[in-house]
Amino acid sequence: MATKEQLKEERAQQWREDLRKSMKNKERAERPRVKMNELDPAYRITCNDEVSCGLTEEQARGESTRCLDCPDPTCMQGCPVGINIPKFIKNIERGEIALAAQAIKETSSLPAVCGRVCPQEKQCEAKCIHLKMGKEAVAIGYLERFAADYERENGLMAVPEKATENGRKIAVVGSGPAGLAFASDMVKLGYDVTVFEALHEIGGVLKYGIPEFRLPNQIVDAEIDILNKLGVKFIPNVVVGKTVSYEDIHEMGFEGIFVGSGAGLPRFMNIPGENLIGVMSANEYLTRINLMGAGRGESATPVLNGKNIAVIGGGNTAMDSVRTAKRMGAERAMIIYRRSLDEMPARGEEIHHAMEEGIEFMTLHNPLEYYGDEKGRVKQMLLQKMELGEPDASGRRSPVVIEGATELIDVDVVIVSVGVSPNPLIPSSINGLDVTKWGTIVVNQDTMQSDVKDIFAGGDIVRGGATVILAMGDGRRAAAHMDAYLNS
Description:
Blueprint: H1 4-22, H2 25-30, E1 37-38, H3 41-44, E2 52-54, H4 57-64, H5 85-93, H6 97-105, H7 111-117, H8 129-132, H9 140-153, E3 169-173, H10 177-188, E4 192-196, H11 205-208, H12 217-230, E5 233-235, H13 246-251, E6 254-259, E7 265-266, E8 279-281, H14 282-291, E9 308-312, H15 316-327, E10 332-337, H16 348-356, E11 360-363, E12 365-372, E13 378-391, E14 397-410, E15 413-416, E16 420-421, H17 425-429, E17 455-457, H18 460-463, H19 468-486
Parallel strand pairs: 3-4, 3-6, 4-5, 6-17, 8-15, 9-10, 9-15, 10-11
Antiparallel strand pairs: 1-2, 7-16, 12-13, 13-14
């Protein structure tokens, strides 16, 4: 006799067959890609409301019909956490939105987060069969967000099933995307999981690094709440390697440790004037505003404001910083980037939103020196004009100095966003842990296991810089292999 799940799958298969007969693939392929609903730029720069408003159910179901339900879905090859993309999209198409959300959560613990901030255009959507047909990819990211939001907004968020508790304790260092994905998989396997977070709020870079106009905190909190209900314990204000040592964790009875402490050490350019008041890292700027409330009236940790704010860099963090500066009241908010717009590594969507919001892009410029006033506060910046030469190792054309071509501009605040380095505290506090010259932990890339056999690691502490979804993929891979290691 067939089980309930088998009957459900048979019905779904029959539905797919019937649908194929009613709508041919050519008809599906000809449908235009849905456009995201967004707030008006003139309004959104006055507040911190989320810019992208999501899809309506009608829009989502219409977009889902563009999926061809390929026999060999190449889109899944581009997903670091292995979401069954055709399965969740086809559930949306037939109106089973809650089932779509459940399908995503079989492998992803943060679907509403990933639907908002992951670079789908470089991952799952980059593998979409539509691109080979000269069409736009199916809006997989938009649909993932829609399913997750629908589930949350309709009170349908369910706690996933988990194995019988085995009583074995596992520690996680850092509550960013890598740590959360690892904790989710391990608690489902029956382990007693505790996450230690250095800051006072749980979420890591999802809370301190990404502004609410791109990722509202309530979205992060809702997905963390499910992990709480699953049984994951979260302990904030614990700096592993300082207030708690590797030896202390073992004395507490933890058998395995996953390190997902991120890359919170900012890099600077080491040019004259970087020590002036008003020159700060993007990490400091965003953390003060996103986590410490510096943008909300009286704050215990205020941040400097100015009329002319320059952000150095061209990545997503630079876009977050300059768009935040605009919302904080800057009259002139500028991106200073040494290459051209085409070489800019930020997501196209973020660049587009920044341009809509009046951000000034000073490409092919690079800072040479900052000048201060009599009180030691930055007031001007000397820029070197650049031109593009031959491509470098990354494939982007290298910037070349135009001799004698400089420009002096007025600035009140300079935010440096030229990269980050891994947090050195943990690697330096554990004897025998192999670390690269860049400060990243060396792991087996297949298993995420370090030379210290009970320590696994993933995310920025291994990669030096990663997207949310790549960090989550590391966490999931580490969980599977730590489980195998502990039971071998």
